[in-house]
C-alpha cells in the first residue's frame, strides 16, 4: 500500500498561529496533535522558556509525537476532555492558549484499516483509539433499529435514518456487516445520489457516536475555559455544523455578562456569577479559496477564536 495516509495537511495554519497570539515564553496546549502540523508551527514561535503540551487519543499520532525531541514539547496520550480536567485538578500553571482542530486526520481517514472511509474497503472500525471501546461493526450488531435511527438522525442529520437502520438490522441477522464497503453498498441502495456520497451522513454519524465526539467537545470546552489564563486564547476549528453549533453556543453563553437587576443589593449567588470567568469573542475565520483548492479537507473548516476576559473588562 502506498503512503497516502501518512500525509495530513494542517488547515488554516497561519490563521491558527495568529489566533493564539503566541507569547514566546508562554504555555500552550494543542488538544489534537494528529500529524503535528499545528504543534510544529507553535513550537517555532516559542523561545526556550516556552512550553507546548500536545494531546491525542490515537496511538499512531502518539508514536509520531514521540519522535519530536524537544524539551519544550510534551505529548500526553488520552481523551482531551479528561486531560484538561486533570490540568484543572492539578492546578498546574495557567495556560496561554488552547487549540482544538476537531475531527479526523487524513492518516485516519485514508488508512483503510481504520474503517473511517466509505470509499476504501476495510474493517468497519472507526475508533480513534483502536485499543478502547467497540468497533462500529460491533455496535451495529448489538443495536436495535431505534438506537441506530437515533444516532443517524442526531449525528448525521440523515433523512433516511430509519430505512437505513431497518436494513442494517435485517442484514446483520442474515450475515453481519463487518466491512466499510458492505455498509456503504447497503446505504447506496436506500439513499438517492446527490452532490455528496450517499454514505457520507451515516459514516459521520456512526463515527461521532463511536468516539463520543460531541460529548468530548462539550466537556473539553468547559475545562479549557477554566485553565486559560487572563487574555489566554481559545481557538477551535470545526468541520461540520453539529460541532460548530456547540462551539458557537459555548462562546456566546460565556461572553455574556450575568444579568444583575439594578436598584437592588447583590446576593451571594449573583456575586459569584459576576466573578464567573467569561470569554471575549475575537473572530471567526474560514479558509480562502486558494487553501481549499490545495487542501480540499479545509472546505468546511470554521475557526472560532475567543479570549478569556476579566470580569471587570467591558
Ligand atoms: C484533524 S486531526 C488534527 C490534525 C493536527 N492539527 C495536525 O496539524 O496534524 C484531529 C486529531 O484529534 C484527535 N482527537 C479527536 N478527538 C479527540 C479526543 N477526544 N481526545 C484526544 N484526541 C482526539 C484525533 O485522533 C486526530 O488525530
TrEMBL record:
Reactions catalysed according to its record: cytidine(1402) in 16S rRNA + S-adenosyl-L-methionine = N(4)-methylcytidine(1402) in 16S rRNA + S-adenosyl-L-homocysteine + H(+)
Binding annotation for S-adenosyl-L-methionine: 36-38, 56, 80, 101, 108
Domain of life: Bacteria
A Gene Ontology cellular-component term: cytoplasm
Keywords: Cytoplasm, Methyltransferase, rRNA processing, S-adenosyl-L-methionine, Transferase
SUPFAM superfamilies given in the database record: Putative methyltransferase TM0872, insert domain (SSF81799), S-adenosyl-L-methionine-dependent methyltransferases (SSF53335)
Gene Ontology MF terms: rRNA (cytosine-N4-)-methyltransferase activity
GO aspect biological process, one term: rRNA base methylation
Keyword rRNA processing among UniProt keywords: yes
Enzyme class: transferase
Subcellular location: Cytoplasm
E.C. numbers: 2.1.1.199
Record function comment: Specifically methylates the N4 position of cytidine in position 1402 (C1402) of 16S rRNA.
Family: Belongs to the methyltransferase superfamily. RsmH family.
Record-linked PANTHER family: 12S RRNA N4-METHYLCYTIDINE METHYLTRANSFERASE, S-ADENOSYL-METHYLTRANSFERASE MRAW
Alphabetical list of NCBIfam families matching this protein: 16S rRNA (cytosine(1402)-N(4))-methyltransferase RsmH
The name this protein goes by in its record: Ribosomal RNA small subunit methyltransferase H
Organism whose genome encodes this protein: Buchnera aphidicola subsp. Melaphis rhois
Source species taxonomy: Bacteria, Pseudomonadati, Pseudomonadota, Gammaproteobacteria, Enterobacterales
Gene field: rsmH
Amino acid at each position: 500500500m502506498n503512503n497516502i495516509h501518512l500525509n495530513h495537511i494542517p488547515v488554516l495554519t497561519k490563521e491558527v498561529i495568529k489566533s493564539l497570539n503566541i507569547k514566546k515564553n508562554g504555555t500552550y496546549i494543542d488538544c489534537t496533535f494528529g500529524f503535528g502540523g499545528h504543534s510544529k508551527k507553535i513550537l517555532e514561535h516559542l523561545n526556550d522558556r516556552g512550553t507546548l503540551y500536545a494531546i491525542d487519543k490515537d496511538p499512531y499520532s502518539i508514536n509520531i509525537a514521540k519522535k519530536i525531541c524537544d524539551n519544550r514539547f510534551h505529548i500526553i496520550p488520552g481523551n482531551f476532555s479528561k486531560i484538561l480536567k486533570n490540568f484543572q485538578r492539578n492546578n498546574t500553571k495557567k495556560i496561554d492558549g488552547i487549540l482544538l482542530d476537531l475531527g479526523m486526520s487524513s492518516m485516519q481517514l485514508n488508512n483503510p484499516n481504520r474503517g473511517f472511509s466509505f470509499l476504501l474497503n476495510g474493517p468497519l472500525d472507526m475508533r480513534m483509539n483502536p485499543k478502547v471501546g467497540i468497533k462500529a461493526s460491533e455496535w451495529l450488531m448489538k443495536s436495535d433499529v431505534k438506537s441506530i435511527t437515533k444516532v443517524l438522525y442526531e449525528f448525521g442529520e440523515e433523512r433516511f435514518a430509519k430505512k437505513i437502520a431497518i436494513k442494517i438490522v435485517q442484514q446483520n441477522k442474515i450475515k453481519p456487516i463487518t466491512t466499510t464497503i458492505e455498509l456503504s453498498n447497503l446505504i447506496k441502495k436506500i439513499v438517492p445520489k446527490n452532490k455528496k456520497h450517499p454514505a457520507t451522513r451515516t459514516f459521520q454519524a456512526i463515527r461521532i457516536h463511536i468516539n463520543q465526539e460531541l460529548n468530548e467537545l462539550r466537556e473539553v470546552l468547559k475545562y479549557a475555559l477554566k485553565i486559560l489564563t487572563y487574555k489566554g486564547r481559545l481557538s477551535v476549528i470545526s468541520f461540520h455544523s453539529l460541532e460548530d453549533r456547540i462551539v458557537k453556543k459555548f462562546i456566546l453563553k460565556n461572553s455574556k455578562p450575568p444579568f444583575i437587576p439594578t436598584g437592588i443589593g447583590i446576593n451571594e449567588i449573583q456575586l459569584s456569577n459576576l466573578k464567573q470567568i467569561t470569554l471575549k469573542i475575537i473572530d471567526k475565520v474560514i479558509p480562502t479559496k486558494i487553501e481549499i483548492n490545495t487542501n480540499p479537507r479545509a472546505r468546511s473548516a470554521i475557526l472560532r477564536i475567543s479570549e478569556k476576559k476579566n470580569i471587570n473588562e467591558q
